[in-house]
Amino acid sequence: MTRLLAFLLPAVLVMPVATFAQGAKPARIGWLSAGTAEVDASLLVGLRRGLKGLGHAEGKTYRLEERYTAGRPDKLPEAAAELVRAKVDVIMASGDQAALAAKKATSSIPIVVQVADAIGIGLVANLARPGGNVTGVSDLHADLVPKRLEILKELVPALSRAAFLSNPSNPTCVRQAKEIAAAAPTFGLAVHPVAVAGAAELEQAFALMAKEKHGGLIVCGDRMLSTHRASIYALATRARIPAMYANRRFVDSGGLMSYGTNLTDMYQRLAMHIDRILKGARPGDLPLEQPTTFEIAINLKAAKAIGLVVPRSLLLRAEHIVE
C-alpha cells in the first residue's frame, strides 16, 4: 500500500483576511507546466481532490486556466505572461522551469510551486520564510540521488557503468549530475551524464549509451523528459537497459523503477496553499514544505521485457508494484 506523504512544516499562524464568498465570481487558478495535459493528468487529480476536500467546487468557487508547452521549456515565459495578462488570482507552477518563468513574469500574483530545489535554483533564499510571492513544495532531499544509485545497484548487482539522462536547461538536472558524480564511487559505479535538449536527441543518446556499454540509467525528474517518456521507455527496453526514474508516474505508465515522492499526494497537499492564499494569506508568509517520505515503485512487466528478475529484497520494500 502506498504511504501518504509526511511533510516538515514549520509552525505558522495564518489568519485569513479575505475569503471567496459563496456566490462570488470563481477564483482563477493558473496552471503552468512544460508538460502536456496527458502528462500532468495525475497531478491535476491530486490538486482537484485537495481543493474539493477543502470545500471548493470547480466551476463554482474556482476555474483552472491551463497552459502547457508540450516539452518546450523555452515557451514557458510566454505561457506565464499569458496567465499574467489573464489576471489569474494565483499561479500553480509545476516544475522548476515553470516556477522560474512564473516568478520572472510577475512579482504581485501569488505563485504556488512544486520544484526540486527552490533555494538551489534561486527561487527563494529561505524555505521557512520565502518572502515575496512564492510558496509551495521543494522536494529534493540531499540523500535522494544517492538512494537512487543504491537501489539501482541493488537491482543490478553487477552494474559498473551507468548513464544519467538529463535536460541541460533544467538547473536541477545540472545539480543532480554533480551529486551523482560525487556519490557514484561509493557504490562502485561510474556514472556519465547524457544530456538531451528534446525528443530528437533521444535516439542518439541511447545509441551512445549502447556504444559505451552502460548497464543502467537514471533519468532526471524533468517535465520535458516526462513529456517524451514513452520514447524513453521504448528505447530503454530495446537496449535492455534497467532505468531508474524520479517518481511512480513513470512506473505507472511503463517505466521500470522509481524512487521519490508521490506527486499525486503532493499536489493534493499543495491545494492547502492555494486555499490559504484565496482566503487572504500572503504566499511569502507560508513556508515551502519538504516531503519526508519517499517510495519505491516497480513495474514487473517492464522488468520482464528486458529479462530482469527483481530481487525479493526490493519487492518487499516497494510501496507500489505494477504487475
List keywords for this structure.
2 domains, Rossmann fold, five-stranded parallel sheet, seven-stranded mixed sheet, disordered N terminus, alpha/beta, 14 strands
Write the layout of secondary structure elements.
Layout: E1 7-8, E2 27-33, H1 41-53, E3 62-68, H2 76-85, E4 90-94, H3 96-105, E5 111-115, E6 134-138, H4 144-155, E7 161-166, H5 171-183, E8 190-195, H6 202-211, E9 216-219, H7 223-227, H8 229-239, E10 243-245, H9 248-252, E11 257-260, H10 263-278, E12 290-291, E13 295-299, H11 300-305, H12 312-317, E14 320-322
Parallel strand pairs: 2-3, 2-4, 4-5, 5-6, 7-8, 7-9, 9-10, 10-11, 13-14
Antiparallel strand pairs: 1-12, 11-13
Helix pairs in contact: 1-10, 2-3, 6-8
How would you describe this structure to a colleague?
Helix content is 36%, strand content 20%. The chain has helices spanning 41-53, 76-85, 96-105, 144-155, 171-183, 202-211, 223-227, 229-239, 248-252, 263-278, 300-305, 312-317; strands at residues 7-8, 27-33, 62-68, 90-94, 111-115, 134-138, 161-166, 190-195, 216-219, 243-245, 257-260, 290-291, 295-299, 320-322. The radius of gyration is 20 Å and the shape is elongated. The two termini are 14 Å apart.
